[in-house]
Amino acid sequence: MAVPYTTSEHDVVVIGAGGAGLRAAIEAAQQGCSTALICKSLLGKAHTVMAEGGVAAAMGNVDSHDNWQIHFRDTMRGGKFLNNFKMAELHAREAPDRVRELEAWGAVFDRTADGRILQRNFGGHRFPRLAHVGDRTGLEIIRTLQDKAVHSGIDLFMEMTVIGLTKDGDRVSGCVAYDRKTGEFHAFTAKAVVLATGGIGKSFRINSNSWEYTGDGHAMAYRAGAELIDMEFVQFHPTGMVWPPSVAGLLVTEGVRGEGGVLKNNQGERFMFNYIAEMFQAETADTEAEANRWLIEQQAAVRPDPRTAARRPPDLLPRDEVARAIDAEVKAGRGSLHGGVFLDIASRRTPAEIRRALPSMYQQFKELAGVDITREPMEIGPTCHYIMGGIRVDAATALSTVPGLFAAGEVAGGMHGANRLGGNSLSDLLVFGRRAGLGAADFARSNGSVGQDPEQIEGFIGEVMAPLDRASGPGPYEIASQLAASMEKNVGIIRQADELELGIAKVAELAQAYRSVRVVGGRDFNPGWNLAIDLHNMLTVSEAIARAAITRQESRGAHTRRDFPRTDKQQWAQVNVTIRADADGLMTATPTPLLQMTPELAKLLEG
Amino acid sequence: MNEVKHRKLKISVLRYNPQDPESVPHMQTYELEEADGMTLFIALNEIREKLDPSLQFDYVCRAGICGSCAMLVNGRPALTCRQLTKDLGDEFTLAPLPVFELIGDLSVNTGKWMRGMSERLETWVHAKEQEIDLRRIEEPMDPELAEKLYEVDRCIECGCCVAGCGTARMREDFVGAVGLNKIARFKIDPRDTRSDDDFYELVGDDDGVFGCMSLLGCHDVCPKQLPLQTQIAYVRRKMVAMAFS
Hints:
Chain A has helices spanning 19-30, 68-78, 85-104, 137-150, 216-223, 255-258, 288-299, 319-331, 351-357, 359-369, 424-446, 454-469, 476-490, 497-514, 527-551, 599-604; strands at 5-15, 35-38, 55-56, 119-120, 130-131, 155-157, 160-168, 171-179, 185-195, 228-229, 234-241, 262-264, 341-344, 378-387, 390-391, 405-407, 494-495, 560-561, 575-581, 587-593. By secondary structure, chain A is an alpha/beta fold.
């Protein structure tokens, strides 16, 4: 007997209510579209709340030497020039407007002495650029967007997980979701769909992500025929908590280092001076004396003259560089008791300064690890944090390669290239969340209504119901934990061909087991069943990551190959790895040429 | 590392599924071994993964930022991701937050409640101009005021204050400390053009600030240690002044 479902119709449906989804929904509604916003948990609880450091925007409030051109340059260099340059340009140009807009909507920011929005230093950013409020910027952004959305006339669907995108011919026609509270199904018909589902962190054992980060948007878009790019680039944030085990992976904000914190090994050595890559030598301090002078200059009331200023400490190199350095120190036996290294701010700033600038970190370590960061160093290590790769989109409209399907935020690929700079994610989701909302609204206006195919809807429902009907089979927790362990071991920070092969084989083996996965209980709020549904997506994105990683035979940004340690200046410098399904539905990974940059922009990258 | 002998924890959970007509509220006890630095959130996940996949509870961030995982621990509202099991006895009880609609077991719908409160109190900046000129630099704000504003804007809407409130148990439409704190936040925000009159319309009654009995359970249980006592007193002073003006 067919399972019943309810239906609704909208111009635009936005899937995901983090920063990008909220911003997209607000924009679509302001454009006059009937808009639905679907979130996997409650409104305002999305993973964006975890963003701590700030939103990168070249406003030049703290140092007037900053401008969008330098932000563009920093972003491209951080991304090892693989970025979609049009996205990087739009992002750098528009981020200041988006911050001012957010401020006008009521967001609170820390201020300079003369009342402007204060900006802080962050890894890879040449000037203090991150607008922030303490170390809770993400929460403030979500709260502001949520308050804005409440009176924007958006239909809100909370605690609903989308299980598949429906199509009318080539075009996306909506999606099917189930309500976690009741287990009931709902089919959305929409002229345009925006994916804003975030990342994939749950595919790795140690990660900083929330339970919602199971690659749903990546996987559903792929199955609907969209192309994914840059999936080999998974960012391991250098500083996650390592102890106690129950909080392993939880993020320690880069703001700690922005405020002067330094990394040390178990000999007390500031090891980062030994890991300054050639590309960053010109702008990085190479002695402790210069790095210390930098901190003093940053705290001075007057900005240092850039011609004579101390260069930035190597602790603030981009995240990929720092994560690899920590990994190497630990493997060389210079790590901490629990397999990390030390992050020390206690010896650099006064307790009062630390508590004011990093209140969440202070509380987090005090409560959960029993460590007082104003007196002792923190123990930290790399944690899976972010995926640069995602759905291939058009920079201006956020349209994917499937008509009517848009993507913004972490689920979209291209903006960050091979490595994302800290602070560029909150700005990304504001800039491209808005653009996706606009793009979807335009698409909905200029394209007629779509038809909904009941067979597709029933197909999706049948698929997710199957695990409840089986009398025996492996449980979803078992498969998920094996997957995350294998991804960490075989497709982690440092990779090589034979391990990647093992990783791919393991995903295939677990995908086979998944076909007979069994869940006990019924449909209403069944956590085991929820995981079984998410697991399908986790398997798909894990395969995509592993296949892209074995395809790219070089080391670049967040992708490090032990068997190909060099960054290639020719072949691999000019391609993205594109993931798509072939005619038989098998996953393929193919190098495809980068967009050609305009000479004016290319000039900005020189020197 | 020294091997420490771990305790056996006995966790009694109030179970009930309102969706299921056959279900009756009952206590169910789970036993598991404590681990180093274990939080209640980790304990609940272990129960779900190893003992009972049907147990319902909420969490998102596991870092005390999103405010999804509040429940009653030995009768007192708390965030499970911030509650270390070592600070509890060998045996303890868990129950869902009261006041909010029960989804099942330890899961309640704080989202619906918060949204209703937000719509009623219009918890957004009511700006002078509808059109924002993005070319203009932002209005300056005194850094101390920004700090003061953020001090009250740190609320994570977890619902602990509402669950710990005597009035909220008696008056269905009481806006709670979370609502009054928001009013205090917008009242001191120079970007919000609403007058004391406007705020009086919103909270100048028994569902608002005059419903508060000053029991201050909210203040005691707030996991973010927000100065709720001060904020409620501030709103009350302003509203009393309005009532007599």
